[in-house]
């Protein structure tokens, strides 16, 4: 049985603008105010650095660096999650923590859903992760992550995945919440935002 079953998935995702060791990120995950357990061995995580070719038959193929890590996140209702880690360019590293995101529980899979009144708890987790990790941009959406905010029609890794090509136009409505470091806040359209820790801006979608 897979660690997560069914769907849709609620994705808590964030991107760093410089390479960061996964082990360092994991060490900081356990410092948040929500207990997070990691269930994969250091040897499993090491496979990320080894990578694999996009095309096994091409000796010059681009190398893919991607790993899935099983987590248990101790929110009010304990949840399983999968953390996807992907290198999307030389400088950018993408993390996406996926939860079972249906509003209804799935007792057959021992997976609680995410009710409307539980969404604030996940947004608080996003803020807590920012305080520990200081990523550049992060967000919360159903079946959508931060990679979709780049105006790039290329398979990653690709050097066009850089913050010059980051755009919120036509995409902001897809997210329940977005956190943007102040270094990127000029990319946000005009709207109502909340300043967090004098270093980042929180957007909340009033329609969700």
Provide tags for this entry:
11 strands; alpha+beta; 208 residues; 31% strand; nine-stranded antiparallel β-sheet; TATA-Binding Protein; single chain; two-stranded antiparallel sheet
Question: Could you outline the blueprint of secondary structure elements for this entry?
Answer:
Blueprint: E1 9-16, H1 22-29, E2 36-38, H2 42-50, E3 52-53, E4 63-64, E5 66-74, E6 78-87, E7 93-100, H3 119-133, E8 137-142, E9 175-181, E10 193-196, E11 200-204
Antiparallel strand pairs: 1-7, 1-8, 2-5, 3-4, 5-6, 6-7, 8-9, 9-11, 10-11
Description:
There is one protein chain. The chain has 208 residues and is of the alpha+beta class. The chain has a domain at 9-148: TATA-Binding Protein (2-Layer Sandwich), CATH 3.30.310. It has three helices and eleven strands; from the N terminus they run E-H-E-H-E-E-E-E-E-H-E-E-E-E. The protein has helices at 22-29, 42-50, 119-133; strands at residues 9-16, 36-38, 52-53, 63-64, 66-74, 78-87, 93-100, 137-142, 175-181, 193-196, 200-204. The strands form two sheets. A nine-stranded antiparallel β-sheet has the order 2-5-6-7-1-8-9-11-10. Strand 5 and strand 6 (78-87) form a beta hairpin. The longest helix is centred in the middle third of the chain and has 15 residues, at 119-133. The protein is globular, with a radius of gyration of 17 Å.
């Amino acid at each position: 049985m897979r660690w997560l079953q069914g769907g849709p998935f609620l994705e808590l995702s964030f991107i760093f603008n410089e390479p960061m060791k996964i082990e360092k990120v994991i060490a900081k995950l356990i410092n948040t105010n929500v207990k997070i357990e990691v269930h994969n061995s250091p040897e499993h995580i090491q496979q990320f650095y080894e990578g694999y070719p996009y095309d096994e038959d091409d000796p010059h193929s681009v190398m893919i660096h991607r790993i899935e890590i099983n987590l248990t996140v101790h929110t009010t209702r304990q949840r399983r999650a999968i953390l996807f880690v992907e290198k999307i360019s030389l400088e950018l590293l993408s993390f996406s923590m996926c939860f079972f995101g249906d509003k209804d529980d799935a007792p057959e899979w021992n997976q609680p859903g995410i009710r409307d009144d539980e969404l604030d708890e996940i947004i608080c987790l996003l803020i807590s992760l920012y305080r520990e990790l200081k990523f550049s941009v992060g967000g919360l959406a159903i079946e959508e992550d931060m990679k979709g905010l780049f105006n790039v029609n290329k398979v990653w890794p690709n050097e066009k995945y850089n913050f010059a090509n980051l755009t919120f136009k036509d995409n902001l409505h897809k997210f329940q919440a977005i956190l943007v470091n102040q270094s990127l806040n000029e990319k946000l359209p005009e709207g109502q935002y909340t300043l967090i820790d004098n270093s980042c801006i929180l957007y909340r979608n009033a329609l969700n």
